[in-house]
């Protein structure tokens, strides 16, 4: 049994901070386990929705057959229903699809989804689910071909379309003997992916250069590109939803969402290997907007000495609460409280728009106030950095002892 | 003055963030917001028979054979409970 002195020695410098960080990690692990044990949704209640009129249901090999019972006791096949799953923005999207005996889709229902609420709501508003109805199971059912994506919710649209296609294909192959064309293998590699790679390389070079003027101009350029491309054009900033998805194990398909891997992989790699944050001060689009506003009024960093530390703990507490809730309820997008979507895509709850207005106003008075005291991603980077420093401390001590 | 103004700004931001997080928790737990729970809630209210279906068709673990045939009773049993 280790005595307090040994524990303190193990924790090294900043013992209190490290103890709190360890407790936070432990509690997040508990939230993760709770979420893992309680997540999952039974699909059966949705069968009657996608097979209207079916009053008797049989299930074989994961496919449901729905029958209508007539007054004379005879029964007629209404159709088949199945569930398909694919990756959306926040996690897996499970769709139930009903198909009539001729192979026409007659019902589509969301069984389970983990998308950001403000964005996923765009789908029913645009009648996206209705686009699948009356189509044949042998149709491509693909975005860009016979289905249009909903602007502002492209990844959710892709997830739903892929899940519907999988369910329809399974029914077609297992019950209808209808040949279904295989979905073409396609890697999404476009402007966002090229931009993020270019930003990492430019940021690295900017970080390495010793000439201050160069560094300043390179940083301004990366921030501008980040704000325009990753912010206003594509709305793909790093968010807490990404962190919760990563921790929940909701990793998207790499070929449809390569950007996710480049963004998160790059940040994790540089933070753990180099101990530097490649994102926040170099190309965070929201940070760039705050910085741009600060330049208009020449606003300065505000760090009241007596308050800075307690305020940082409030920021960490907020981030911890949001991550713990996201993990426990397995809803990565629901607790991502950053107002990024409100600024870059004009989507979100009214509370988030109010927060955005306050942050933009505050940015005129103080340099990057959201980054300094509210952003939940700063504590995430801090935690990784602290783990790295702690590991180095322990290794150094072991070397000193030997 | 600057300090109190800053703290006021930060306090209002924190209240908004906590309200947004609370709204999400409330939405998920009551089914009035979004996510899978909403789908379940909507399902129960709109088609009570579907809730009965869920109870009737889930087979016990280890049920032999690939097929089972539950009969759905169209009733408001679930809501009555």
Overall mean pLDDT of chain B stands at 58
Give unreliable regions of chain B as ranges. Answer: 32-61, 63-81
Name the strands of the widest sheet of chain A in spatial order. Answer: 1-2-3-4-5
Rg of chain A (CA only): 25 Å
Separate helix tally of chain B: 4
Structural class of chain A: alpha+beta
Rg calculated over all Cα atoms of chain B: 23 Å
Structural domain tally of chain B: 2
End-to-end separation of chain A: 23 Å
Amount of helix of chain B: 55-70%
Task: Give the SSE string of chain A.
Answer: HHHEEEEEHHHHHHHHHHHHHH
The largest sheet of chain A, given as strand count, sense and whether it forms a barrel, is:
5 strands, antiparallel
Classify the beta-strand content of chain B into a percent band: under 5%
Largest sheet of chain B: none
- Number of DSSP helical runs of chain A: 17
Report on the structure:
The complex is a heterodimer of chains A (402) and B (81). Chain A has helices at 4-11, 15-38, 47-50, 117-120, 122-125, 154-176, 191-208, 212-233, 240-248, 258-274, 280-283, 285-297, 305-328, 340-344, 350-363, 369-373, 377-401; strands spanning 56-60, 63-69, 75-87, 92-99, 105-112. With 402 residues, chain A is of the alpha+beta class. Chain A folds into 2 domains: 14-36 and 189-401, no CATH class; 50-176, Sufe protein. Chain: A. A 5-stranded antiparallel β-sheet of chain A has the order 1-2-3-4-5. In chain A, a hairpin with a 5-residue loop joins strand 4 (92-99) and strand 5. In chain A, helix 8 packs across helix 12 (285-297). Chain B has 2 domains: 1-30; 41-55 and 68-81, no CATH class. The longest helix of chain B is centred in the first third of the chain and has 29 residues, at 2-30. With 81 residues, chain B is mainly alpha-helical. Chain B has helices at 2-30, 35-46, 48-57, 77-80; one strand spanning 67-68. Chain B is rod-shaped. Mean pLDDT of chain B is 58; it is low at 32-61 and 63-81. Chain B contains 4 helices and 1 strand, in the order H-H-H-E-H. At the A-B interface, helix 3, strand 1, strand 5, helix 13 and helix 15 of A face helix 1, helix 2, helix 3 and strand 1 of B. Strand 1 (56-60) of chain A pairs antiparallel with strand 1 of chain B.
